[in-house]
Amino acid sequence: MRTAIVRLGVGNLGSLTATLKRLGHQVDVWESDRDVKPADWVIFPGVGSLSSVQQQVAQRRFGRPLQTIHQDGVPALGICLGMQLWFEKGEEGGRGLGWLGGTVPRLSAGILPHVGWNDLEVTPHAPDWLSSFHKESFYFVHSYRVMPEDAASVAMTTDYEGHFPSVIVAPHLYGLQFHPELSGDAGEALLDHIFCHGR
Amino acid sequence: MLTARLIPCLDVKHGRTVKGVTFDHLTDQGDPIALALAYAADGADEIVWLDITATLDDVRPRHEQIARLRSQLRIPLTVGGGIRGVADVEGLIDHGADKVSINSAALADPRLIEQVAIRWGSQATIVAVDAQWQAGEYRVFSHGGRRDAGRELGDWLREAEARGAGEFLITSIDQDGRQQGYDVTMLRYARTLVKRPIIASGGAGHVNHLARLLDEGGQYGLLLASLLHGGQTSVGELKRQLHARGYRVRVPN
Hints:
The complex is a heterodimer of chains A (199) and B (253). Chain A is α/β, with parallel strands linked by helices and 199 residues long. Chain A contains five helices and 13 strands. With 253 residues, chain B is of the alpha/beta class. Chain B is globular and about 45 Å long.
């Protein structure tokens, strides 16, 4: 499988590339629009803030090619901020790509960021192949959450002083609020399932 | 629900772990990469790699070690020790650290916290603080706990939070290495002052000490050092015991 990672910031991609390679993927990292080429999957990683990532999209001239990829229905995986980028806008004014209706407000909790291993709960909208990850723990680190307009896109939720969407499944877009590449065996198994079933 | 984080700390000196550890299946117990992977396999939630005497000569070999660990480690990795400025942070993150822990350099120039947080995000910016009760207050110490930094703990935590610290790693100099329990009073004081996650360090010697701190609430991460190094117990064993007592932990299969 040919998988592309869209460079959206300055964080290290080491654990993500290592995980994908273990899963047998051929991995390309796209540094700018010039690197964009056909891929089976496109991965949107990301840490930082929505506005900083949107700046990266502009600087690296990703706007148009990513739009084309989205319109062509290429399967995409968004991790944390990479998923948040697909929504319309953040609470602090940063704009997203607007592929999914909804916003990205701050979590309402006493201690932020939400850091650590927390579990997933399936919703009635979850595809069957996600059910084996019900109550499984994954590593989270974030202060913002997505608030999708389409409730049916929320496949799994997580509780941190209230429930928020932790897995989004919208046709060909798979969004994870946590970091599967830092979530041990569970993270690797989930990625394998997504690449296998989510097409 | 969020589970309690158990975080083994590797004390590394010139590329070797320096405190004794007992993992029967490790042929080289001084190799920090093998040790980190063994902790991860045993159920560690994160790894903290603390270089206790990072000098300029150590930089390149350390980067190589971290890159090698990163290609195999599948849980978060924090690296600290010897960070003097943004260039050091860049080197560590580029080679695979998910977060960096800054201590003396932040005390010397607190703007470093902002520089790191703006560039890599608050989530990558851990401010480590060593503190000790002295003359009626908690004083902050730099340089491995040897030098009074001229700061009171609460003042420094609040300033570091305002400048963008995403987590705190707070070590009690009084309790460190004594295995008599975490400094609950100091941690409780810190907890009331800042809204960032706190990793408690110094004093863990028994599963009761972990339970005692978890009873406080406050979502403390639990740093484990000498308790594991001495081979008295393991991450997996501590987690099974905590789980049996009803604490929420991620129990390895």
